[in-house]
Every structure is written in C-alpha cells, then in structure tokens.
Design goal:
The structure holds 2 protein chains of 2 kinds. In chain A, about 70% of the residues lie in helices and about 5% in strands. Chain A is mainly alpha-helical. Chain B is an alpha+beta fold. In chain B, helix 6 packs antiparallel against helix 11 (about 355-380), helix 8 (about 310-330) crosses helix 9 (about 335-345) and helix 12 crosses helix 13. The chains are: A mainly alpha, B alpha+beta.
Chain lengths: ~325, ~450
C-alpha cells in the first residue's frame, strides 16, 4: 500500500484544473441552491452549453474571446428555457425539468443529427490555441517538488482557473450582501413574505438560475480547456451529483463553502480511488470485487455521502445552520 | 496516425481509468469473465495511449473500402451482422461484402477512383433501421491508391424498413402503446407516492431497475437458480415491494418524523438514487444482459396489425393491472383511504385512518408496479444498470403531463408520452426521441402546469 503516493496524487487532484472547474461550477450551484433555494439537478447541462458554446464558435472560425461570450450567452438562454416554465411552480418541477435536461442535452449533442455542428461522440478539439499562446509557463516543463508537480500547461489553466474562482467568490459575496442578495435569501426562506414587499419573486429566481448558469458555463469551459477537447461524455449526469456533494460538504449558503468543498471532495475522491486500487491489487477483496468494481464503489459512497450529509449535517463542515433552507419546516 | 486520433484514444483511456495511478495496474488485471471485454478494450486503448502508436492499418495491400456496422442507441453500440454492402463503379458491380459477427465488412477495390457504396436495406435485421434512409447509398466514395477507406452507415434501433408509411405508423403505434404501458406502470406508483407523502422520489427509477435486475438474477444470472422468467418474476416483485417498504420504514418515515424540509428530502432521494444505481453497477457490471426467454420472437398477425406476441402481452396485461389499480382506488376501503390521505392528511388522520399504514400500502403498491414495469422493460429491451434512470425522465414527463399526484392522470400521461416518443421517430431521427418527451414536458408546464387531470392547489 503506497500511502504517500496515494496522498500526493489526491493532493494534486485537489488543487488541479478539474478541482478549479468544479469549484467555479459549485459557486454557481450555491447561488441557485444555497442562496435562492432552487433545486437545479441538471447543473451539468449549463457546463455543457458553456463548453460547447466556446468550442463550436472557435470551430466555426470565431475567436476564442467571442467563443467565451457565446458560451456565456448559451448558458443564460438555457437558464431562461428551463426556468421560465418552472419557477412559478413548487420546487419539484424545476428538479424534474433540470434532471431531464441534463441528460437529454448530452444525448442530443452526441446524436448523429447534431454531428455536423458538434462532431458527435468525438467532439471538438483544438479550440483554445489563443488561450495557450498567452501561457507564461514552459509548456513541457514540470513544476513542483518530488511527485507533487504540474506541467506548465496545467499550471497556466490552474492559475486562470483559480483566479476565476476567486473573482466569482468575491462577486458572489458582493451580490449576496447587496439588497438583491438579501431579497434572494428572503425568497429561500419565505416567498410570500418577499412577494408582500413588492419584489418580483419569479424574476429573482430566474436571475439566480441564470447567474448560477453563467458560472457553470465558465466552469464547463475550464473543465475542457486543458485537453482542448470537448466531448459529450465529459458531461455525465454524475457531475451534477458531485457538485451537490461539494456544495453541501462545504456548506450551502456560504461564500467559501463551494471552494473548500471542491478541494476536499477531490482530495477524498482520489484518495479513496487510489486506496481502492491498491487494496484491490493487494487482494483485500478476494474475488468479490474486481478492478472495475473497486472503482465504482466510490460512486456508491458519493451517493451515500450525499444522503448522510443531508440527513445528519445539512450545514456541511463549514456551513452555518442558520443559512439553511433545509432545516425544519 | 493523425494527431487528432491520438488525442482521442488518450482521452478515452483516461475516461476508463480515472486515476493516473491505476494505469499500470489495469494492464496486469486478473481477467474475470464478466469484465473481460471491457478490460481488453481498455488495455488496448491504454497501449495505444501509452506508446502513441496506431493499430497497424492492414498490411500494405491493394485499396479497399471497409467499415463497421453498429446500431447506436444513445450509449449502446451493437454490431450488426449479416448485412450486404454493394460496391459499384459507374453502375458496374465491383464487389459485395456481408458484415461479420462484429459488424465489420471490407470490399477490395482494384484501383484508386470513385465508387458507389450501397447498404442493402432488405438485409437489415429486425429492430435495426437507418437513422436517415437517404444516407444508405453513398454516391461518391473516393479511394486513393493503397488506401483502406472507411465509410460509415448510421444505424439505430427501429422497425425494419422497406414497408409503406401506414404500416410503419401502425408499427410505431404498437411500440408506442408498449412503451406507454411500461411508463404508465411506473408513473402510477410515483404519482401515488407523491400524493400521500409529498415526495417526488428520484429513486423511483432505481425501483424500476431493481425489478428487472432481480428477475434477471433469478432467470439468467450465472449465480442465480435459472428459473423460467414467469417464476423468476414472483420473487423479483416481492423483493421490489420490499424495497419500497424498506425505503419507507428505514428512511422516509424517520425523516418525516424529524420534520425534515421538503428540499432536503428531495436531495436525499437524489443521493439514494445515485447510491442504489451505482450499487447495481458494482454487482452486475455495465454490460447489458438479457433474459433467457422471450428475447427473440416471430411476428404474428393480429386483427389488423403484425407484431411480436410479447408486445401484445405487455400492453394487455398492463391494461388489466391498471384497471385493477383503478378499481382498488375507487371501490375498496383501503383505496379510498389512500385517496383520502392524498387529499388531506390531517383530515384523514382525524377521521380515524391510520395514515402511516396507508402510506406503507402505497409504497408496497408503488414498488411492485415499478418492479413489473422494469421486468417488462427488460423483456422488451435489455437489462442494464441505468435503465431505470433513463426511463425515469419519461416517467416524470408522464406524471407531470397527467397531473402530479393523480393516479389516473399518470396512466393517461404514460400512454401519451409513450405514443408521442415512439411515433415522433416517423419524422425525426430515433436518437432524438427522448428530447420529444422533454419538449412535451416543458410545453405542458407552460400551457397547463397542473397537468391534464391535476388540480391547481398542488403546484405551488
């Protein structure tokens, strides 16, 4: 059992580009779920629209920056489409529509019908050359100490990614402290009370859904930019579940909760991943679990973890019990 | 190898193998029969990725045109054997190939030039159809000297082609009724459970999967007893009902007693769905499985249509069962109590109804119906770990369409969704049929959010 190796791998994963992408998307989900009380179970759909908006634009000859703009707009439009029919109804309806959208959008993107634009299952490659032209690090050089190291390419994505996370968190802080943010938290606690103050509750929720969607769209771009390759199957429904665990683990309705949650989640996920691989190889499970099974067990744990957190510690590890829509009715 | 290909294979490998640490380990796996296939592919991709070499293209020979026929249904790829492919040049036949067991075919061509490649639609097996019939004949396939040109035909599930429009619509109508029956069975349970507990159970899809997987275990699994499917269905349904009851007793009732908020209960049901789905994945693996019976059937003539007997049996027995559920709700004391609890829990309780008992009865009923829906789905398609999650999207659409909380609305919604999804494939590609359900769902919420038979108070 190579404990130090497992530990370092998990550490690398916890601050790597994917963790930054998850953190950014989780900040978006936190605005929707944590502050506005919206149960968006198809957050991955927003990541997909962001990433594909960028890739398709560049693929069609647009510039990288235009692509980012298109990706952001696509996420906003998706928020409109999903929010307009559902946000006047009780919370279940948004959940039903978003969980369907998350999966169906992926199936549409990978279908042969959409292939002329999306290139089907193979996806689109090389859409971020402009981004890597700005890379100040040496592409193939490895930075770091011992096994704890990143390629220059990764380091550049991480620098930009975590800067975006920081900006997004500060922006969220600013927004939540503003009158708009107070009204939003009011919507979470008691819609009727907010309505009686003359606020347009529907519009507030829709704005929260779209703003959260924009962060997820940027998160989706971040997720695919390192490989410069976007494929439909990078956006499996399980990512939405990961993001829920991240938000609740870190503390829903807190500024830094989603960021800490992403780091801790990635660390635990990869620590357990390495542990299960080694344990399986060492024959701890006998014939009961083969290597694939051992990998899948951690997904079961994600589900159980989500249930347990929600049932026993809904404020997460860093959250505040008062900032909870999930407390007693 | 072009650089694009390399990137692709590396990425696939990294998807199969989540952690960089497990890379060297995968290659030295002890092979177990169950995952042998996946492992072989993974290992092959791994080798490709690690050394960055292409699979050696066929040793330098003359030019040829080749391909691999696969029927693609969402995530599933099935090789299509026994299909004739004709290669012609200026109207003269150059060669014919028949696809092998793995779907691959190859026709050698004498020289560089432009060829016409045609797939013989009459040789397609039942249940496989072109996603776009216009692309089944490729007029201009240019082959360079010494090149092994790959061409692709997009095939998907569907009824065999070569029939006229009316017959095709009739066939789709039958398929729609069958899918509708499967959806309706699951939707009734989901809707009733919502009625009495106010919970939209996201784990309902896993109740569907569980019914199918348990029946598969008793019927066809290596470790199982190998009973006939009709016998295997009995313990499967009992256990499905038990799963519903266990959820209620072990999870939802304690949460209700603790007065947990509705949002946290929803999140817990989402977590449960994720945990159960992946537990099933660990136990049965990702490969689709089939029952030992009723997989392939001869079509038979019924009054004015032709179809396989299992479709008729699924639809007829569903109608009988739904009728029985309707009678139960309308005519029996327990059924009336279920409706009373759904209508107003406090009033029901104060008029002497044991609310917890009624809720338990609803879970048992919902679990059984979901399990049966799963077995029918398994008979009609295949048994796979995420089958319930995939159909849950249609079940949700049905429940919302009929009106959340209404049993009869859910039945009606089930058949409407089933018919519109299947019949839409007459006009649009098969791969997009689930998007139709999504469109129906959103359209319904905009037009009449309470659903066809629902009441306004329930919706928000």
């Amino acid at each position: 059992m190579g404990w130090s190796e497992i530990f370092i791998d998990a550490l690398v994963a916890s601050i790597g580009p994917v963790a930054a992408a998850y953190a950014l998307s989780a900040i978006g989900l936190n605005i929707q779920f944590g502050y506005a009380g919206l149960l968006n179970v198809g957050h991955v759909a927003f990541m997909l629209t962001g990433a594909y908006g960028l890739a398709i634009t560049v693929d069609a000859g647009g510039s990288f920056y235009l692509g980012i703009l298109v990706g952001i707009l696509a996420s906003i439009v998706l928020g409109l489409i999903l929010g307009a029919p559902t946000l006047r109804l009780r919370a279940d309806y948004l959940a039903i529509v978003t969980i369907s959208a998350g999966e169906i959008l992926r199936l549409v993107v990978r279908s042969s019908w959409a292939e002329p634009v999306t290139n089907g299952v193979f996806g689109i490659q090389r859409f971020a050359n402009d981004f890597f032209d700005l890379n100040p690090f040496e592409v193939n050089k490895r930075y770091g100490i011992g096994d704890f190291q990143f390629q220059g390419r990764q380091l550049w994505v991480m620098t930009v990614g975590w800067s975006l996370v920081l900006l997004a968190a500060l922006l969220t802080k600013r927004l939540i402290g503003s009158p708009w943010g107070r009204a939003l938290r009011g919507v979470r606690e008691d819609e009727d009370a907010v309505r009686s103050l003359g606020k347009n509750v529907f519009l507030l929720k829709l704005q929260a859904l779209m703003l959260g969607g924009v962060f997820a769209g940027l998160g989706g771009m971040l997720l695919v930019i390192e490989q410069q390759s976007v494929t439909p199957d990078a956006f499996l429904p399980r990512i939405t579940f990961f993001l829920y665990v991240i938000v609740i683990l870190g503390g829903a309705g807190t500024i830094w909760g989603p960021v800490l949650g992403a780091i801790v989640f990635q660390f635990l996920f990869f620590f357990f991943d390495g542990f299960m691989s080694d344990a399986q190889e060492a024959g701890w499970f006998g014939d009961a679990l083969d290597a694939t099974d051992a990998q899948q067990v951690k997904l079961v744990l994600v589900g159980v973890g989500l249930m347990a957190l929600m049932a026993f510690r809904p404020q997460g590890f860093f959250g505040d019990r008062d900032e909870q829509l999930v407390g007693d009715d | 190898m072009p650089p694009g290909r390399l990137v692709r294979s590396q990425r696939f490998a990294s998807q199969l193998v989540l952690s960089p640490r497990s890379v060297p380990q995968l290659a030295t796996l002890k092979t177990s029969a169950r995952h042998l296939h996946i492992k072989l592919i993974a290992t092959a991709l791994l080798v490709l990725a690690m050394f960055g070499v292409a699979a050696p293209a066929a040793l330098a020979q003359d030019s040829s045109i080749k391909g691999k026929l696969e029927s693609i249904d969402n995530d599933d790829r099935e090789p299509v054997p026994g299909v004739e492919i004709l290669v012609e040049q200026d109207g003269t036949e150059v060669g014919v190939a028949t696809s092998g067991d793995d779907g691959s075919w190859e026709v050698p061509v004498p020289a560089a030039g432009t060829y016409q490649v045609t797939l013989n639609l009459d040789t397609l097996p039942d249940g496989v159809a072109p996603t776009d019939p216009a692309t089944m004949s490729l007029p201009d396939v240019a082959v360079r000297d010494g090149q092994n040109k790959t061409v692709r035909f997009n095939l998907g599930p569907g009824i065999s082609s070569g029939v006229n429009d009316w017959d095709r619509l009739l066939d789709l109508f039958i398929l729609g009724l069958k899918l509708g029956a499967i959806i309706a069975l699951a939707a009734v349970g989901l809707s009733l459970i919502f009625g009495v507990t106010d919970l939209v159970n996201f784990a309902h899809g896993e109740m569907i999967t569980l019914g199918a997987v348990l029946a598969w275990f008793f019927n066809a699994a290596d470790a199982g007893p190998g009973w006939p499917l009709l016998v295997a269905a009995v313990p499967a349904l009992v256990l499905s009902a038990g799963f519903g009851a266990a959820q209620e007793a072990g999870l939802w009732r304690p949460l209700r007693n603790r007065r947990a908020g509705s949002v946290s209960i929803l999140v817990i049901s989402i977590g449960l769905s994720f945990a159960v789905r992946n537990t099933i994945l660990v136990f049965m693996g990702g490969e689709p499985e089939t029952y030992t019976q009723y997989v392939i059937q001869e079509e038979k003539d019924y009054f004015f249509f032709t179809t396989v007997p299992k479709n008729v049996i699924i639809v007829v027995s569903t109608l009988i069962i739904l009728g029985a559920v309707g009678l139960f709700l309308q005519r029996t004391q327990a059924g009336v109590a279920v409706r009373a609890v759904a209508d107003n829990k406090d009033l029901a309780e104060s008029s002497g109804i044991d609310v917890n008992k009624i809720i338990m009865i609803t879970w048992l009923l919902g679990g059984t119906l979901a399990g049966l829906s799963g077995i029918f789905l398994g008979v009609s398609e295949r048994v796979q770990w995420d089958m319930g999650f995939k159909i849950l999207l249609l079940v949700f659409a049905a429940v919302v369409l009929g009106g959340l909380g209404t049993a009869f609305g859910a039945m009606l919604g089930g058949f409407i969704v089933g018919l519109s999804v299947e019949m839409s494939t007459f006009w649009i590609p098969t791969e997009l049929k689930n998007a139709v359900a999504m469109a129906v769902l959103i359209g319904m919420l905009l037009w009449r959010p309470q659903g066809l038979l629902g009441t306004k108070e329930r919706i928000g």
